[in-house]
């Protein structure tokens, strides 16, 4: 007899999101029961037969994780996935403490949701093939094939891993793939974004605290490190950790113990740490901002996530994947890339990497007036960046004068030298600051200067504030 499809309970009070997600999951082969609030979901859970629950965090009948608590009491082995448009740190920590399988922020990527569901299901095989574990890392370029091969080898070890790479290159996807293909795949995968959590909350978030440990600590709280025990702890942007917490994390890696705030008793913990950073940690060590002993503990195995400019042959596949995902999400016809559009994409420097490409494709899919996307559509989507990225370009009066009606590429071809010379002069020849203002990567600015034979040393300031003679 053929296998029965897995039964999913989807509880969400946003009709469009609920219907779109249910339709997507049904096409993927699942049987979906869609309900509009927590009360209906509670009755569905109580009746049995539910194999996975996906629930909004903030809707009638589920304001305080009531559904998750019910699930854990009645069916502790049923995977529970949270989706929310109003995330809060306490709810995230409490959800992890109660054993959620995954936590998604709206608008969610339905492919990510599908991948998470597949990881939640028990499988007959104990080995997840590398091609499945790293399926979300798209591309056939040599750079991507190499990093997938290395990640698959790294995954089958218990050693800690450091993933280096610029922002937007997909470091978290690599980390998730390492967990899914690794020895701890049956355990939790817990993510901590070290850059987004305020320093005052970071220690409590990581290590937990005892009741009364500080003002406002009304209950005992388990930290995320302990929540990850038996699985993988992913420390995103680990270079942002304050030095005090670096010392505490080092103790976790050395001795496998944590000390919650306000406690005098250490607790054993068993985690594999995968860390990611867009910083050069050796330079951070030299500057006194990162501990050398912690670096060596984290970088037992090391991977580099390649920037998009080093894998331009993957542009077409990545762009088409994003367009298809957006069309599925919004239930609209997918835009098609012309050969000229692909060429325009390949000519951009992509300082924001795959994340920037996703934003450009979002603008093209939503704002393009034709089914076929042209090079002009791409160029207009690129130049239609946030104002902070455009401001430095338009500060040049001559550039501003000719900007109207010109494509981004022609604008830069016409005015690039004058723009770069003024930019470097304004920053005294400091390439890093100039690149930041221009919204470019440092490497991208160096390439442009080399192409135009511009020497940044000509614009370095003398002690009195005058320019070096050029």
Keywords:
Rossmann fold; five-stranded parallel β-sheet; Helicase, Ruva Protein, domain 3; 4 domains; 470 residues; alpha/beta
Can you describe this structure?
The chain is of the alpha/beta class. The chain folds into four domains: 1-122, Rossmann fold (3-Layer(aba) Sandwich), CATH 3.40.50; 130-306, Rossmann fold, CATH 3.40.50.300; 310-383, Helicase, Ruva Protein, domain 3 (Orthogonal Bundle), CATH 1.10.8.60; 409-459. It is built from 22 helices and 16 strands. The protein has helices at residues 15-27, 38-46, 66-74, 89-98, 110-120, 130-133, 142-155, 171-181, 199-207, 224-227, 243-255, 281-286, 292-298, 315-330, 339-347, 353-367, 375-383, 387-394, 397-403, 408-426, 431-438, 442-451, and strands at 7-11, 31-35, 52-56, 80-84, 102-105, 161-164, 189-193, 208-209, 221-222, 232-236, 257-258, 267-268, 272-277, 301-304, 336-337, 372-373. Strands 2-1-3-4-5 form a five-stranded parallel beta sheet, sandwiched between helices. Helix 2 runs parallel beside helix 3 (66-74), helix 7 packs across helix 8 (171-181) and helix 14 (315-330) crosses helix 16. Mean pLDDT is 79; it is low at 386-414 and 462-467.
């Amino acid at each position: 007899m053929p296998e029965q499809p897995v039964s999913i309970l989807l509880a969400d009070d946003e009709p469009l999101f609920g219907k779109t997600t249910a339709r997507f999951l049904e096409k993927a082969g699942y049987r979906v029961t869609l309900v509009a609030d927590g009360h209906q979901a509670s009755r569905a859970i109580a009746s049995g037969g539910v194999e996975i629950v996906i629930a909004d965090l903030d809707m009638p009948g589920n304001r305080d994780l009531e559904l998750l608590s019910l699930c854990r009491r009645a069916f502790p082995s049923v995977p529970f996935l949270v989706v929310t448009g109003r995330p809060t740190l306490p709810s995230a920590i409490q959800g992890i403490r109660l054993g959620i399988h995954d936590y998604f922020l709206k608008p969610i990527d339905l492919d990510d949701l599908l991948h998470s569901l597949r990881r939640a299901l028990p499988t007959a095989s104990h080995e997840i093939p590398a091609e499945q574990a790293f399926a979300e890392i798209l591309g056939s370029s040599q750079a991507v094939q190499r990093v997938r091969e290395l990640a698959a080898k790294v995954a089958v070890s218990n050693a800690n891993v450091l993933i280096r790479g610029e922002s937007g290159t997909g470091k978290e996807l690599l980390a998730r793939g390492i967990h899914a293909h690794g020895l701890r795949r049956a355990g939790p995968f817990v993510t901590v974004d070290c850059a987004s959590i305020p320093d005052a909350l970071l220690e409590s978030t990581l290590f937990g605290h005892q009741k009364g440990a500080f003002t406002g600590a009304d209950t005992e709280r388990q930290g995320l490190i302990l929540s990850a025990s038996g699985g993988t702890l992913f420390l995103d942007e680990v270079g942002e950790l304050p030095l005090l917490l670096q010392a505490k994390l080092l103790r976790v890696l050395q001795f496998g113990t944590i000390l919650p705030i306000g406690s005098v008793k250490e607790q054993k913990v068993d985690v594999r740490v995968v860390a990611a950073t867009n910083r050069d940690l050796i330079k951070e060590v030299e500057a006194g901002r990162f501990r050398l002993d912690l670096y060596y503990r984290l970088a037992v195995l090391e991977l580099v996530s390649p920037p998009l400019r080093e894998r331009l042959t993957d542009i077409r596949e990545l762009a088409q994947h994003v367009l298809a995902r957006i069309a599925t999400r919004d239930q609209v016809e997918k835009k098609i890339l012309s050969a000229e559009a692909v060429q325009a994409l390949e000519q951009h420097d992509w300082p924001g990497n795959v994340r920037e490409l996703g934003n450009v494709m979002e603008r093209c899919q939503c704002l393009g007036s034709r089914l076929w996307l042209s090079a002009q559509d791409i160029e207009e989507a690129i130049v239609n960046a946030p104002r902070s990225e455009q401001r430095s370009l338009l500060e040049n009066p001559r550039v501003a004068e000719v900007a109207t009606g010109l494509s981004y590429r022609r604008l830069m071809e016409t005015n690039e030298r004058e723009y770069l010379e003024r930019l470097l002069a304004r920053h005294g020849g400091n390439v890093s600051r100039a690149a930041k203002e221009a919204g470019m990567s440092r490497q991208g600015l160096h390439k442009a200067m080399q192409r135009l034979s511009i020497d940044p040393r000509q614009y370095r300031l003398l002690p009195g504030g005058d320019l070096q003679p050029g």
